[in-house]
Amino acid sequence: MIAGEARDTGSVAILTDSEGMILDTIGDAGFASRAAELALRPGVSWKEASTGTNAIGTALAERRAIAVNGSEHFFSDHRVLSCAATPITDPRGALIGALDLTGSSSRGHGHALGLIRLAVDQIEHRLFRRYFEDCRLLRYHSDPAMLGTSREGILVFREDRLVAGNRRGLSLAGLSWDALDEVLFETILSVEEPRRGGLLLRLSSGAYAVGHWDADHALPRGGDLGLGASPAGEGAATTLEEREVEAIAAALAAADGNISKAARHLGIHRSTIHRYRKQGLI
Question: Which CATH superfamily includes the segment(s) 2-128?
Answer without folding.
Answer: GAF domain (3.30.450.40)
